[in-house]
Protein 1
Amino acid sequence: MGKPGGFLEFRRQDPGYRPVQERLQDYGAVELPPPMPLAREQAQRCMDCGIPFCHGHGCPLCNIIPEVNDLASRGRWRQALDLLLATNNFPEFTGRICPALCEAACVLGINDEPVTIRQIELAVIEHAFDKGWMRPRTPPRRLPFRMAVIGSGPAGLAVADTLNQAGCRVTVYDGDLRPGGILRYGIPDFKLEKWIIDRRIDLMREEGVEFEMQAAIGEDLSARFLQTRFQAICLAGGARQPRNIAVPGRGLDGIHFALDFLIQQNLRFAGDPIPEGPELHASGKNVIVIGGGDTGSDCLGTALRQGAASVTQLEIMPEPPAQRDPTTPWPLWPHMLRESSSHKEGGRRLWSVQTVGFSGKQGRLQMLHCVRTSGRPPELQTVPGSEFDLPADMVLLAMGFTGPIRNKLAEELHLAHDTRGNLLTDADCMTNAPGVFAAGDAALGASLVVRAIDNGRRCAAGILRRLESEKA
């Protein structure tokens, strides 16, 4: 450890955020970058604990956190970078948008504020880019394998990067205009600016990964086309099938899926063409977001920036406690109230509210009909006589996702699905179709970016094992 007893000397200090009134005027990053002296000081709070739960229990990638912190605390940034990249392909993504499961499992967090692990990770990788250390790493040798990765989100990029570094020739296909998947189109710029993605994609291209964009899955890319050109195929298209709501009035104009709203704004901000259809813009509208998760929070922040008259976020579950709930003791991910940067910018949140219907005039949404609830699923009940209405010009459905969107390619390959609708895979991440693998949300169900990266790495390892065994 860099400084024995450092956790007694230094308090947790985050870099903070830009002022609310300033950041609501643009789509720039709301979180301030971690200054290097602060990151080095905060790394000295790491306790060198006997069993690092942050590493073994908290982090899906199993980042070697105590050792990275120790190196950072000593200013040995190059060595910290090498250790970080050994387990994480994209620290610049996770350092910005990961909910920091590692910090929830930090031993210091038992009776104090945990180490700022995510911020230290971000400081390490950004310092590396600033110093020019993140140069193309061309594989020393090429294997006789060509791989196709379908989908350029975090899982697909992790598969492609890992296989390319192992020496395979990798082509990434995606139907979007630009690579990045959910990173580019589902996450607002104020949380993840897109130049960060472009910087990584440029680096991967220089290292030999090919990107073929605007490729229609199942049409431009048929099963026959892929299987005759590649030794292995990885499906990493995510889980973008949104959960719908079946209540009276659902067909009224003004009710949209949250991801459609976020995608359109990201396209608009990038200056890219927006697909034909209604313009999804919150200016001057009373906006209701149904769903209390991260996607709902992103909708809230976006609607505020677009100039919504009001924004209300509804959650069917009861309001969590302000402190860690006893049912989720350390080192579990704590059940407790969380406020995102968007929640601190305005709007309001209503808890224990269920939507029972919509109404309007001439086919246009005007009102949301609700009822109060008590308890938690599966014992969730409505409270008699608690009905109330909310005026609404726009409703955004942010209730999660039910699995990958079905496409012609999956049908051609006759892929099996599990009971949740995700692609069924074995221990090597291979589907029931020989040579066809699946990674990320397509196989796991909608989850975190950090889990998608981890599963992408595991899938790449599985692909290599299968190919090497067939070659032997």
Protein 2
Amino acid sequence: MKLRKNVRSLTRDEIDRFVAGCLTLKRAGRYEKFVHWHHQVMIPTVMPNEPHDPNYRNGAHLGPAFLPWHREFLMQFESELQSVDATLVVPYWDWTEDAVDPKNSPVWADNFMGGDGVQDDYWRVAKGPFAYSAGNWPVPSYPEDGFPEQGLKRQFGLNIGSLPTSADLAMAMRERLYDTPPYDSGPYTRGFRNRLEGWITQRGDPQVTTPGSQLHNRVHLWIGGNMLAMTSPEDPVFFLHHCFIDKVWADWQAEMAQGNAQWAPHYAPLQNGPVGHNYDDVLKPWQRRIRDVMDITELGYRYEQPPSLTVVRERFNKSPFSE
């Protein structure tokens, strides 16, 4: 059983191996397919009466498949890393631990993900193994997005002022339903998925304490640069961010399995929802269906947990949650 660890728990050797694995995939031209997969899935899969607009809904975002699609995406990436080094497992970045001082998170260490971009250098990352000056991480220019030069870009805090807090995350964990009609990204669409993806804002819920996008979306905006675009996996921190999103979903599933087992599989819609988002729909461009990625123990991995959640995970591992 693979253990996905908090970035704060990684040893220096584990950090070095993870970075080396990413660089090896990049040099071999095997990293780019993850950027392309993420970009290509952002084609609308809408119902006949819905607008054909890629900002409305697609096969991996703005709807129920957001969490299962990215769970499969992470497993694909982890498998690719393990073809280079069998010891590698994607770690997770719990950004709530850094909400007070986000720019000094250990994830931005010079030997790990590197730091912020430099405004006077087209927002290109200046330090670390993925910096433009290091020459190891070629990223195309995107003039249409305001990035006319090559290289990895970040803009900490430029687009939104803060990372989500533990209190923000707690609101998502209190949701009892996975998703609700019309299964979209509207601020009034209730459910765990829409809350965690970040679309339930102050407009839709006065309990939200910070303006603007929330949770998952807020992290992309706070980092900025290449994390803003449909090609956001250009920044390797994408995988650490989404690994935490997957952990949050797994923790929510564990709680649902304890108290609401009769509601299993704790996913909606089972059918008659948007194309690509129903329980038996295939997670394109791969072979597994949404129903196949519902239980992380069956998928062969687990998450390092703080002491308060250890009991929850143990109970989940023994539960009859998965089909």
